[in-house]
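Justification of resources, computational component.

The compute hours requested in this renewal are based largely on the per-chain cost of generating structure records like the one below. Each record pairs the submitted sequence with a full structure-token output. That output is archived, and it is also reused by downstream analysis tasks.
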Amino acid sequence: MIVENICKVFYIKKVNIISGMLRISLIFCIFAPLKKGNDMAEIANRINETSEGQILFISDFSDINDNEKVVSRALSVEEKKGNIVRLANGVYLRPKNTRFGIVYPSIDEMVMAIAQRDKVQIQPSGVTALNKLGLSTQVPTKYTYLTSGSGRVLTLGNRTIELKRSVPKNFAFQTVLAALLVQALRTLGQKNVGNQELSTIRKLVNEEEHKDLFVQDLTLMPVWMRKLITDIIDKNEHYDTLVKSHNR
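The structure output for this chain reads:
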């Protein structure tokens, strides 16, 4: 009899626990869709308030909902409405429409946006650096950048971007020109620097706004590059005083 009563009490408690769990589940089922709907509306509002031409990432909406699937679903809905354009997996654009169509960001702008998101430094290298300086007209099949973060390959539309993890000294330059010249000349090679390349480099060096910082950057360059560029600036009176001052 005692055992029977104990079993009855246990059964009643078990039923009460299960009933309570069912009630909690029911409440969750009622309010979860409501929250999800509110989040999707908030994501849509934020997109509408975003400037045209801005690049967006799934992580930009993590403060609204930290579930990437929910955010992706909301962005997919906005994409179908034409409010955003998908550039790559997890990367979107708030389009700027003109009579010629949508204005897409450049590779540089997209990579810079990714770098800002990841809080890392980037630096064009290889043929990408040559192109930026006008030392090559070759259209790269793959855009290459050095990064202080993790190395990886990205596909943005029909373009491939390789981010190569690099050492801190490649990000130590004070001027963009010096950093680009090192990467471009390294790709070109000392023996392949001809009169046409020298003419382009001379023009770039002469037009550099921050000449004092550029002179300081020379000390970070490999010896053969430093000699090549020093020969150029020695013939420029604007650099003469700066070089003498720096060598004291």
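The radius of gyration is 29 Å. The CA atoms of residues 32 and 38 lie 10 Å apart.
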